[in-house]
Design a protein that fits this description.
The complex is a heterodimer of chains A (376) and B (368).
Chain A (H helix, E strand, L loop, with lengths): L4 H12 L8 H17 L3 E4 L5 E4 L6 E8 L8 H4 L3 E3 L2 E3 L3 H20 L8 E6 L10 H8 L2 E6 L8 E6 L1 E10 L3 E2 L10 H13 L9 E9 L5 E2 L2 E10 L2 H16 L7 E10 L6 H16 L5 E5 L4 H7 L4 E2 L6 E2 L7 E3 L3 H14 L10
Parallel strand pairs in A: 3-6, 3-7, 7-16, 8-15
Antiparallel strand pairs in A: 1-2, 2-6, 4-5, 5-18, 9-13, 9-14, 10-12, 11-13, 17-18
Helix pairs in contact in A: 1-4, 4-10, 8-10
Chain B lengths: L3 H12 L9 H13 L3 E4 L2 H4 L7 E4 L9 E6 L11 E4 L2 E4 L7 H19 L7 E6 L7 H4 L3 H5 L3 E7 L5 E6 L1 E10 L9 H11 L3 E4 L2 E10 L9 E10 L2 H21 L3 E10 L2 E2 L5 H12 L5 E4 L5 H7 L4 E5 L2 E2 L7 E3 H18 L4
Parallel strand pairs in B: 3-6, 3-7, 7-16, 8-15
Antiparallel strand pairs in B: 1-2, 2-6, 4-5, 5-18, 8-14, 8-16, 9-12, 9-13, 10-11, 11-12, 17-18
The chains are: A alpha+beta (376), B alpha+beta (368).
């Protein structure tokens, strides 16, 4: 296969050195423009949406055999690339977003390029979508991803892999909540009976929410940030908490939300009102029967490539949750091997790139005659 | 004679001067020349530097006779938030704040009334006797201004009156509680180890007896803060709280209880906690047959105001002056709903307060 690691690394250096934090529209547009130019070279039809999401399709198709998904944004602020630019040390490449997931974006492109050069993408309708806000929940790109997924037989997501033989089959659903407690302020030393403490009610909620953790069912509820009150001698009028919920089923999520509703309707500290704002949700990625058929195919490919595949269930979310939530057979973690995402120690393992590209190419090819969910 | 219009005007001007705790510069600069014009020797102490504020306490000596007891009159220059850009207006019988701010009647009613009483006496050509006026800074920040005055300055007086009680004119606080402030830091372990500081803190608070947990005792957790991100296990939480009361025994019990529930929750979830407690101010109790009570009682009776006593639930600069050895009471100033945008004062009460101060000065100088 005509895969040049040197070229790949040259391009990787270029795009890793563009800061593209989720709110850095200039940087994200630069990355998008880079890929528009590259995909146009391959003759793909490209479109950039107002949110700087990029679509590229290898022909004028209404439906797709495969939807390839990646994200262009990183978690790093402007200036990170100058501070610690792309570098290679031994078998590893370092730099902001190198594993999560600029190496995956390029793996996608180089694999498609190789497929085209070798004529392997004939009769295959391929759609690429690169979004700009995955690291902050894909709020603006979810509608586009959903629209494209519904036209696709299979969704493949290029998040990084833990090792050359790993793929992600399950991801927990994620929901985020802001809890705003409003009590009644009063002088704590003079007339405490006139007050209603938002801090005490918050503490009650935390204790109750902690009871909902159920490791066997895969439900975790974490109150991660709390803040309330103004001074020791004032009964706190305001308090806030942010909650992160991970769940495997909708029923599990609903159970937690029902408890929140009960707590809200029955405050322990009378006079405290609680506002629950759900600020983001990704459904759980659970393998459907159709996904398992796809898994069987991928399993065969793995055997051919002498990869002893391990299928990972991850607690973290990605755009795969969105497509799987629609019932589209979805596999994630198809990118090259890396580690320590979201940290300055993030790295990519160079020797994984070529093998993972071969693997991806084979999987895309296998989508040609896969009977997916999409109506034929 | 008390001049009602002058009193109201002065009050309305004073509230417009932004004077949050540690930011009393403009207020001090306004009051200093007024005190000088009234014939005082005025000093500003070094408290501003000590407490990282921009102004010190103002100490004004008015003594114009050698004999007789030296009376200290005190009020504070700062106010609480929201306390910037205050505009007062007359609504019916009351003075109120126009906007979303406090009125700063706490404690400018007292400042304006003291100045009006002195102005009235000056106008009539009367002597002041032996008085010392102290306008403190940062009272609202744990009595910081009073705490940083040179105690000798206070002790040089024979007795004192603080005017800083949100109650009717004629109310005397002769007993005030001690207050303990505490803060606790609860440490979890690294997020991966999963010892959740928020869980520990919440468990502890849920178990705490707060509000009025015991006779004459109050307790509160006022501030909580912790955690870095919603998906990470919090590795720290900080709590701030207080407890106050008149009985040392009950207070000790309450502090013990708070410490105990924190350490139990910490042990249960294998975290760590540090707990710091300090006496913010000591309580006091003034004997009914003391000279200061006699002076105040007599003045209230002369004006036919309702004479009432109560034990305070809060601290004031009077706690600190008593700690320095100066028998000091705290008197009602007629303010209502203080520390809130609904704060107000009946104009009539403000006048009564100025009259009372004037009467106290007269009786103190021996003109009974």
């Amino acid at each position: 296969m005509s895969f040049s690691l040197d070229q790949y690394l040259q391009d990787l250096e270029l795009i890793v050195n563009i800061d593209s934090g989720s709110k850095n529209s200039k940087g994200i547009n630069q990355v998008a423009d880079f890929f528009i130019e590259r995909y146009q070279r391959l003759g793909y039809l490209t479109e950039k949406t107002t949110n700087a999401n990029l679509m590229a399709v290898n022909g004028d198709y209404d439906n797709y055999d495969v939807l390839l998904i990646g994200h262009m944004d990183t978690v790093f602020p402007e200036g990170t690339a100058v501070e610690r630019p792309f570098r290679i040390s031994g078998n590893r490449a370092y730099g902001p977003g190198v594993a999560d997931m600029k190496s995956g974006l390029l793996l996608m492109y180089y694999s498609l390029k190789a497929m085209q050069e070798e004529g392997l993408d004939r009769d295959l309708a391929i759609c690429v979508v690169l979004n700009s806000d995955e690291e902050i929940g894909s709020k603006k790109s979810i509608p586009l991803i959903k629209e494209l997924a519904q036209k696709s037989k299979v969704a493949l997501v290029l998040e990084g892999a833990r090792n050359v033989a790993s793929l992600v089959l399950e991801r927990k659903g994620i929901a985020g909540y802001h809890l705003n407690f409003t009590g009644i302020a009063a002088h704590a030393g003079v007339e405490p009976e006139k007050g209603a403490s938002a801090v005490v009610e918050l503490a009650h909620w935390v204790s109750e929410l902690n009871e909902l953790n159920d490791l066997a069912a895969g439900t975790t509820v974490n109150v991660g940030v709390i803040e309330g009150g103004t001074a020791a001698n004032v009964i706190a009028e305001q308090a806030r908490a942010t909650v992160d919920l991970r769940f495997k089923t909708e029923a599990a999520r609903e159970k937690v939300e029902t408890v929140m509703e009960d707590l809200k309707n029955n405050p322990r500290v009378k006079g405290v009102n609680v506002e629950v704002i759900r600020h983001g949700i990704r459904p759980a990625m659970n393998p459907s029967a159709e996904t398992m058929r796809l898994v069987e195919r991928v399993q065969e490919i793995g055997q051919r490539l002498k990869l002893d595949l391990n299928w990972i269930a991850s607690g973290g979310g990605s755009d795969a949750n969105t497509t799987a939530g629609l019932g589209i057979p979805t596999i994630d973690g198809l990118g090259p091997v890396g580690a320590n995402p979201h940290s300055k120690n993030e790295y990519l393992e160079l020797d994984s790139v070529k093998l993972r590209s071969t693997f991806l190419t084979e999987i895309i090819s296998a989508c040609r005659d896969f009977k997916g969910k999409r109506p034929e | 004679m008390i001049n009602q219009a002058r009193l109201i005007n002065r009050f309305m001007e004073l509230v417009q001067i932004d004077s949050l705790s540690r930011e009393e510069r403009a207020m001090a600069d306004r009051l200093k020349p007024e005190l000088l014009a009234l014939g005082a020797v005025v000093r500003e102490d070094q408290s501003g530097k000590k407490i990282a504020g921009n102004a010190g306490n103002l100490i004004a000596d008015f003594s114009d006779q050698i004999d007789g007891p030296l009376l200290l009159l005190s009020a504070h220059m700062d106010r609480v938030e929201p306390g910037r850009g205050i505009k007062a207006e007359i609504r019916g019988d009351y003075l109120v704040s126009q906007g979303e701010t406090v009125l700063a009647g706490d404690d400018l009613i007292a400042v304006a009334a003291i100045l009006e009483a002195l102005t009235g006496l000056q106008e009539k050509g009367e002597r002041y006797g032996r008085i010392k006026v102290v306008f403190t800074v940062a009272e609202e920040q744990g009595l910081l201004g009073a705490k940083s005055i040179d105690p000798e300055e206070i002790k040089s007086a024979d007795y004192g009156i603080v005017f800083d009680l949100d109650d009717q004119v004629g109310m005397i606080v002769d007993k005030a509680p001690s207050q303990f402030k505490f803060n606790a830091t609860i440490i979890g372990k690294s997020p991966s180890a999963g010892v959740d500081a928020i869980k520990i803190a919440s468990k502890a608070i849920s178990e705490m007896k707060l509000g009025r947990p015991d006779r004459g005792i109050t307790a509160n957790i006022g501030v909580i803060k912790g955690g870095k991100a919603s998906h990470l296990t919090a590795d720290f939480v900080e709590l701030e709280g207080e407890t106050r009361g008149h009985s040392t025994e009950h207070l000790k019990k309450q502090v013990g209880h708070i410490k105990e529930v924190i350490s139990k929750a910490t042990a249960k979830y294998q975290g760590q906690a540090s707990f710091r407690i300090e006496k913010n101010y000591p309580g006091f109790e003034i004997a009914r047959d003391s000279d200061i009570i006699k002076l105040v009682e007599k003045s209230i009776q002369r004006l036919d105001l309702p004479l009432t006593y109560r034990a305070s639930s809060g601290g004031s600069d009077a706690n600190i002056f008593n700690q320095y050895g100066l028998p000091t009471v705290n008197l009602g100033i007629g303010a209502e709903r203080v520390h809130s945008p609904e704060e107000r004062v009946k104009i009539d009460n403000m006048i009564k307060l100025a009259q009372l101060i004037s009467k106290i000065i007269e009786i103190n100088r021996g003109n009974d």
